[in-house]
Specification:
Number of domains: 2
Radius of gyration: 31 Å
Order of helices and strands: HHHHHHHHHHHHH
CATH topology of the largest domain: Four Helix Bundle (Hemerythrin (Met), subunit A)
Distance between the termini: 62 Å
Oligomer: single chain
Mean pLDDT: 77
Number of strands: 0
Structural class: mainly alpha
Helix content: over 70%
Length: 277
């Protein structure tokens, strides 16, 4: 009985040591750069396939890359454990991409296969910390951006109604003939795509005061709202650095307090010794 328990304990220790070795491999400083290089190489293969469609060598290399990603997935799961691996949402994203590549690799739908191959390039985001930081900031800013989205919808709706009311007979139907066509025209205006020559100037020739409509819409719709979006994203982008800075300051403060306490204890011990002498 005791021998069986000893054997079980040895097996547990060997499993732990094996997982420790794999974890050290995953956390090695060269592991992630190698993965990034393979993703880059995968991107080059995908780009080359657009010129050499159906090339057997490229397809074979692509298949090898897929199994390298599978091996990376297995190594990470073993090293980090199921709980440690799947607790990170970026690992969940990687897992879904790799499993999707396996499931749809032999699909008869060429478009689906190409889409999965292209999605593999998105793995570059969790692989590079700077990109991951930007996407995390964007996701955190979504609740704040919903307010700006609501404001944008309101402004676009007001200007679309004004456009259909006053300009529906000036230009063809596809510009301001209805509410939805006016919304699309305003989207064209806010992107500055041929808005002056195709939309604004023909209307201003017929309705002289229309310049107020377009100038005010560009200032509010393009400049103000765009700056609001940029400001919100930048505020969330700097939050992580601020949180890390505060954590570092708190740690330094605690260490300083502990150091002061140790110095006071040493000082008290020295005073007590001098008094005894």
């Amino acid at each position: 009985m005791i021998q069986m328990e000893i054997q079980k304990q040895q097996e547990v220790n060997s499993n732990r040591s094996f997982r420790t070795i794999i974890r050290q491999l995953v956390e090695h400083k060269y592991f992630q750069p190698i993965v990034i290089a393979i993703i880059f190489f995968n991107g080059l293969i995908i780009v080359t396939e657009t010129y050499l469609t159906g090339n057997s060598l490229l397809l074979a290399i692509d298949r090898i890359i897929v199994w390298i990603f599978v091996l990376e997935l297995i190594v990470k799961i073993i090293g980090l454990g199921f709980k440690g691996y799947f607790s990170d949402r970026w690992n969940l994203f990687d897992f879904s991409i790799v499993i999707g590549s396996l499931l749809f690799y032999s699909t008869p739908f060429v478009s689906v296969l190409r889409l999965i191959r292209v999605l593999r390039l998105i793995r570059m985001i969790p692989a590079i910390p700077a990109l991951r930081k930007i996407i995390d900031s964007l996701m955190k800013s979504v609740p704040a951006l919903t307010g700006i989205l609501g404001l944008s919808i309101l402004i676009f709706s007001i200007y679309a109604i004004i456009g259909t009311t006053f300009f529906s007979e000036v230009l063809p139907y596809e510009f301001f003939g209805s509410f939805h066509t006016a919304l699309f025209t305003l989207m064209q205006v806010v992107t500055f795509e041929s808005w002056a020559s195709q939309v604004a100037r023909p209307i201003i020739n017929e309705v002289p005061w229309a310049w107020v409509y377009f100038v005010s819409f560009i200032i509010i719709g393009a400049l103000v709202i765009l700056n609001l979006v940029v400001a919100v994203i930048l505020s969330y982008l700097g939050q992580d650095d601020e949180v890390k800075r505060e954590e570092q300051m708190d740690r330094l403060y605690k260490e300083n307090q502990e150091l002061k306490k140790d110095i006071q204890e040493i000082k008290q011990l020295i005073l007590n010794r001098n008094n005894n002498n």
